[in-house]
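Narrative progress, year one. The postdoctoral researcher (J.K.) led the effort to move from monomer predictions toward full complexes, under supervision of the PI. The following entry was the first complex the group processed end to end, covering 468 residues in total.
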Amino acid sequence: MSCIFQSGVRFSAYPDAGLASLLVRWIGCQRFIYNGKVGEDHLYAAQRRLLIKSGVTDPDALKTPLDQEYSRFKSRELSPWLYDVPSQVLRNGAYRWMCAKTRQLKGLAKAPTRRTRKNFNSVMLTNELFRFVRSNGEEVLEIGTEKNPVGLLGFKAHRPYDLPRTIVIRNEAGRWFVSFSYAHEGDRIVREPHEVAYEINGLDDDVLDAATIGLDRNVRDNCFTDSTGRQHKIEQVNLDRIARREKGARRYQRRMSRTKEHSANRRKVAQKIARRKNYAQRVRKDFTHKTTHGLVVSETRLFVLEGLRIKGMTRKPKAKRDPVTGKWLRNGARAKAALSKKILASCWGELDRQLQYKATWHNKLAVKVPAAYSSQECSRCGHTHPGNRDGARFACQRCGLEAHADWNAARVIKARGIRALRKGVYDAPKTRKRVAFRRKDLETGGSPGASDTPEEMSVEQTLDRLAA
Ligand SMILES: [Zn+2]
């Protein structure tokens, strides 16, 4: 049995000014259709809830239609601009929503939400809207329908590529990229995580120990330490560059405050800021890709991470109010914002995400274990006490083990992962129960989804969690 794999390549693209402004419009129109479908989905969900409330028990009575139709969002009066773009661009917007909705129905993702310019900055084109042509001896993309081409898009292919059926053109902080995506049959078989867990669980203790790596994430120094004692860190030269660009961004931010609203100048300055901020993102992504690649191609078969709830840790604290006087009290929001920034800058979530999918790809397993007290526990004798820890040093009060605190924590996490594996925590596939509505929302009228968001932590709690 073979699997269908999705893969792709991404190249820098160089549209001229005319094509760039056209592509920006296409992106906007595709987003408009996508958001239209999202809104419609919300409407159906609200009606379903009303039906259930009035006693209709069949939750499928008002299903959101899973289709690519978009004509109802097109109106000469309200959205005349949609008539200027090729219909395939709009249909692909509906198609992108359909894919997102399908993922939700399969239990792979949350419901599709409204997107903005920030998180929907690309346009997907199917092969009616592009073809490869030669211009000045180079292969370039001709964008538009065959009858009505709109421009040539040059790109820099830094590796060989096949002819794609769909392409995605993306604008990131003023830079353009084109990605070619492929779905092809692979010759290798990718197994389910619980099958991999079963297989690894069959290993002898010492073999499993050698094939397991625990990873500890250190926010203070912005690095990862694995249980072999190796530190993974963004290179200093890149950190210096990030700092320099942040400084530059602050300078342009001040300049932007003096520009006139909606002026061309303001747009230019905004782009300069975006570029500078984008640099840090690119460095971090590059770092996580290199780190996770290095990990999955090694001999290791089990990766153990600490399960931290990044969302709750970095959420803004709720406003506090004095119950008697009604005055607003300090809630530590600023202190927490600084910490949140550091947590997010350490690319935790991204490392986790990439390690998960890359491990699956290589038939390896990446798991998460509870992180509580991992830095106070001795990796040799298991003695857990706050006194064991002194800054970056770890010294066990019972058995006298002395080590770097991160290395000790990584070993504790590794041991926890092995214990959980032996206990069979990762064995059985989780069965997901689909719930048509949430009882709590019905009673309180609260916003749907509020109940399943992670709880918010105070600065102290977050620090505790980190120190633990
Ligand atoms: Zn000890």
